[in-house]
């Protein structure tokens, strides 16, 4: 059983929490705690060996913790997700394969594409695909269609697996803290469009990818995971793009594992990740 | 203030420990806990914000913990070390520089070399150097001289910074858990002599280095840190040796930082490292 | 157009080769050359900008090169492969996805499994799957069935994508230099069975994977690619296995890309890889 | 013997160059060639086994190459350098140690500091240290003093080993292509002052360092080498700074090795690095 707690910091929090668990004869297998001193914020993730009644544990924790505490006892083991894509397959296919073999720790409800390029691969894995074109339609209407569709699936998370349209603040605000994006650069370097072209022209020796929660500042949300690979002068811009796709796939996979495994806290445009 | 605890696992340990701290109004800044289920062993490292009387804390912890508990409250911030070398400079020089600029978190008492190659660089940093040759002397007598000398300095740790003689079980037993070695391979690959030659002949694409505590099984003690670098066919065996020295220096520096910062527990030929 | 040449080294080889190309007005875009001094062996890979008659170029090269030279002009852009699997999906699925989206640089002719676990995923991608069980049959007959089947497809390469049976020398000898294996450890460490269990018990801080050509010495063929990831005490043996699968997938994908892109030479149990 | 050639690309360059070498019975041990198609620019580095008369080789190469060709035959094996520092020791100390043990491939003529913090460590290694304060003096006069001093030493390269003052275009123009800087971020992310504070506030999961040639655009010159290390929420801004110093030291060391080993070409704000 996993318990997640986030609240303002004060003396005695660990004692209070572990006291509750000890009185229930629950053995702590793994405990991670972090205090952000600048924000005076306390984060804790604990795994206990035995199952227990989550409602009862939560009630008892609430009695000993500050009233602002966010307490999650026994989070859902399998998250519901909707995936949004454009034309690039690599991140989506990786998710579909893991989903099919039951190692994604999430259930893909549907895939929404603004092109139909990836419809066939979704159908091969029996996943509903919805084609909602952004062409010949106002942006507001386009997003409204997507939003309505997403709400029908009631997902825990929306994964932008190379969705190449910028979402409006209104759309983002409708799903606060629930949209995960893979950005094709080592943010904050090369924010914006065509990062591989930028990287090639700048002559960098590393390229990277960043998985982050989406907020209203484009390419500026809390970072979950980042990775890089070395590149050299011998790579063209399109070689860099190919290499970048490998790292994008790996970084998104890692970020989703961390999020779906309840290892990520978000606070003030930053994450606390208990790997 | 740092507190380290290792004991057999049972329900309620975190509650007992954090209860002691809370009653003293000590705020936990960082807490790392690990349970080795196979060994039923509990490891905990906690940093508290405020200073406190270490003897009193230790006494109170002892009252609530099992009798087998190893409790260290407020470990020495600066460890005393003796360094043993042969001819290669890279690890020693890195330690001397950090020592001189007070970032080693340790005080180098002396350097012992079985050659005098590195005497001059030690003197440039005002560190005593003792030349004890292994030639024209029985191994037992050679080690006895070293042992006697080390004991005069009463070091917390002995660092083998490319000391290329194999130490006898008797020597190792005289300093249990206190000898740290840097091995020039990614153990357990290429144990034994001349690992770069072995790596070259095997045509590997990565070479590495391993920092570990020394036990009686040569190249077999608990591993503290390991790192690798990619290599290619274009490197000769001596190129690999040069590249390997960079990684040896980095790995030993990392391992020493972890040990001197009281982040490493040892149990049953393994380490628990709270990075 | 790509040209690959391997022969004994002597003065003037580059001049002879580039002279042939210059006389045909062919522009060299990229040239990689390596001489293994210990073996006196010359390796060269050159990309030229313009297309040309491969037979004519090969004939002219043969006139200026030693008689032992292995010359490949304009290698097949798409290799034919047969994949062999047991139950683990990760490497196969990665290959199937790349094949489906035409980024594998190879054509998967068929998949052979000694269990039928992965039959369904192959069918989803319209790839023939053959189930040949190793049970209730002598090893010789088992391998004979596989061998006969493979020969029908006439593949350029056979990829062991987590095929967990040891192949006999006779089988290996039937496909010299054409079998590629992914081994679940950083060879030569942890050769043999159950490397993650071994790695866990040894308490290593890195785990890895190795893609190599198969020879008669088990886990001992020429290494094409290797990679590692850091691990810590907090991973169980099964966590290490999960993490290891990510790195196995990545390493096999990289090795296949290098081989299919004609960047790998083999000589004397080593590879020369022009990345 | 090493030969470096840079010129506009055309058909037949490799044949022309290798023909010259073959006629002198010089055996090519390693040849690296790159063509920047966008710029139509040809780069070549070749190592030959035997010594030869460099003037004669250069003359013969000049006869077969375009008139714009930059030809360097047998570059100086040991470069002369002047190092500029402020207060941080890590990059300078690494260079001093390598210099002392004759593995820097360069001769440190002198160190110039705008503080005298690092004077003592220079004297311990018998390297002249010049203290030129930037205080109570106009920037122009400050740079003039430095420039005059540098010219006395006639260095091949000037290494900014954590020199924390911005140099004027006039200063940079006086040493074109000869100033190497280590920047404490993964450029282009976090250009400008205090990158670790920026990285901490942005909550990145990787920090890096960049070694580059200095041009008039601050933090914008051709990149020689870059590296990163993973970081987590548990690091404070000062922890990041400490970790960053390790990577800065490693990246500068690598970049200097590449430059001093004549493996770096510069063209149009980019580098071609034949590692």
From TrEMBL, chains A, B, C, D:
Positions of the catalytic residues: 219
Keyword Lipid biosynthesis part of the UniProt annotation: no
Reactions this protein catalyses: (6R)-10-formyltetrahydrofolate + H2O = (6S)-5,6,7,8-tetrahydrofolate + formate + H(+)
Pathway(s) annotated for this protein in UniProt: Purine metabolism; IMP biosynthesis via de novo pathway; formate from 10-formyl-5,6,7,8-tetrahydrofolate: step 1/1
PANTHER family: FORMYLTETRAHYDROFOLATE DEFORMYLASE, FORMYLTETRAHYDROFOLATE DEFORMYLASE 2, MITOCHONDRIAL
Record keyword Hydrolase present: yes
UniProt similarity note: Belongs to the PurU family.
InterPro entries according to UniProt: ACT-like_dom_sf, ACT_dom, Formyl-FH4-Hydrolase_C, Formyl_transf_N, Formyl_transf_N_sf, PurU, PurU_ACT
Keywords annotated in UniProt: Hydrolase, One-carbon metabolism, Purine biosynthesis
Entry EC number(s): 3.5.1.10
Function recorded in the entry: Catalyzes the hydrolysis of 10-formyltetrahydrofolate (formyl-FH4) to formate and tetrahydrofolate (FH4).
SUPFAM superfamilies reported for this sequence: ACT-like, Formyltransferase
NCBIfam families in the cross-refs: PRK06027.1 (NF004684), PurU (TIGR00655)
Membrane spanning residue stretches: none
Any one GO molecular function term: formyltetrahydrofolate deformylase activity
Name the UniProt record assigns to this protein: Formyltetrahydrofolate deformylase
GO terms (BP aspect): 'de novo' IMP biosynthetic process; one-carbon metabolic process
Positions of the ACT domain: 2-78
